[in-house]
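User: I'm writing a short report section on ligand binding and want a predicted complex to refer to. Could you take this sequence and iron/sulfur cluster and write out the structure as tokens? A short remark afterwards would be nice.
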Amino acid sequence: MVLLNSDICIAPWNMLRIENSGNCYICTSNFHKISLGNIFEKSFDEIWNGNEIRKIRKNILSKNDYSYCKTELCLKFGVNAIESYGFKVPEELEEYTKDYPKLIYFAFDCSCNQKCVFCRDEVSMMSKEEVEKWTNVFEEKILPIIKYVRIVELNHAGEFLDGKFSRNMISKMLEINENLEFNLITNGVSFNEKNIKSLGIENKINTIHVSLHSATRETYKKIFRRDNFNKVIENLEYIKRLKKDNKIKNFEIMFVICSLNYKDILLFINLTKRFFARPSFSLINYNSGAEYASEKIEYEIFSPFHRHYNNFVKILKNDLLKEYMNSLPPHLLTLDYIGKKQVISNYINYFKRRKDK
Ligand code: SF4
Ligand code: SF4
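Assistant: Sure. The structure tokens for the complex follow:
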């Protein structure tokens, strides 16, 4: 399988994602087919330099083989990371690495006060038992390697500002590594100056991704099933100031495309411009590290059999969107760029994936 361009993906040498099940992946289980092992069962080193990951690295180095990657979905974090974070260049890479990951994705604290349609049906916070279980793993296996890590990205499974566990992890990590930076994924509801300063991270943020998935209060309410749109917009002003003062490097506002919000896509692009943020689009996938939401096929506007699919494609072809095509998931991108044959094969793959779930 060949990636969209010939650049090597360096994710297997630099990145690790730890999910709520304990399974670890190079990037995400949505993009990569192989779990590297379970953090409850294996040591950190057994995961980071174990048979699975060494096989993946070997295949990339010797054969440019990405057959373990879902390349129809992957956004090639690994390729982009060379540029964004200045990670290692391919010439230095071997199957075994003595270095620890530079970027770790935390996707195990599922606490969140929201209930987005594509994430969870009910508000869910980490239980006492889960906190205990994860505190042990965090202190025994993750914290000892934090001094070698450059960036921690949290939280892929919930809202880092809603759970005590994530807040505690942040202060423990900063005690060990004061140079640590954070990529923060947030719904923006509690992302205000007071909360960020009290965590001591205002000057330690590399990237902020805010989930908005809408451009109007009405659409926001349909997706989040809460009425926090105005509060989030207020907090986006704070993030805009951080960006203006060069306190953060990247600012993205995220939009998971589904049938409830696709009509907001163009308005959303204008909204991101207002905050000097980059729009980031992805497709509904029901699994952001924790699987809570029931899958609803009527949300899947990108399915060729959705009754409003043609309206969606019309929006995708709008000139305003052209500039942002690169941030669209690859199999949407192909609609415009690869032609009928590829589009049909994408549809077939899409249904195969659904069947495999
Ligand atoms: S090519 Fe994509 S799926 Fe494969 S390791 Fe890199 S980022 Fe992950
Ligand atoms: S998508 Fe984000 S904001 Fe929405 S319920 Fe899930 S973790 Fe919370």
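A remark for your report: The pocket of iron/sulfur cluster (ligand 2) is lined by residues 112, 114-116, 119-120, 158-159, 187, 211 (CB under 6 Å). The two ends are 22 Å apart (CA to CA).
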